[in-house]
Amino acid sequence: MKLLEAGILTVxxxxxxxxxxxxxxxxxxxxxxxxxxVRGDVCLHNVVLVEGEKEVQLDSFQxxxxxxxSGDFLCGRNALTSLEGAPHTVGGxxxxxxxxLTSLEGxxxxxxxxxxxxxxxxxxxEGGPKRAxxxxxxxxxLTSLEGAPxxxxxxxxxxxNPVPEKVFKDIIREMxxxxxxEHILKLKWKRIPAEYKVLLYRSHFDWIDKKEMEVLKRGVxxxxxxxxxxxxx
Length: 233
Description:
This protein is of the alpha/beta class.
């Protein structure tokens, strides 16, 4: 692999890149941007690293900051708590599923194929991509579609979240027409069941009736107390 400037990446980082880019892939470090671009795939699925005498699950990208990856970038089934260093553009698939992520901040903003983040702890889609062919965010903790992609060409799957997929799909259908998330929520609010309103409610929704807002606030406080107790169990 060629470095644009010697000594920028550590030996450990270079070995990491050589190990986890496939045989036909080529990576190059751009000293002007500080990013590593990859022509091909990066496969970091279910990675176990040896540190001293211990084996540890991958919990970061080892200080490497990726730029453009022309193929797939697969980093699912690890111990990642952050996507810091992930590429900003992925030509193929991006998969960060089955990680203890609480946010999509750091995600690529443009994904040519599938974006997959199922079985994570995210509660919204903020920080996620602006475009993907298919978007899969099932089995998360989603209570909001804030930050949802501007364009999903084919399938958007959000099943097995606290808010039912049917509610989300109605909203996504309107977002595809160019409407903003909060505007759609405002229009559909009266038709949304009360038990889901508690989950969807945000304190900046000043268009909600004051009496209903007080009820929702109490509901949110009760929900937060329940979650706090659940963590202690």
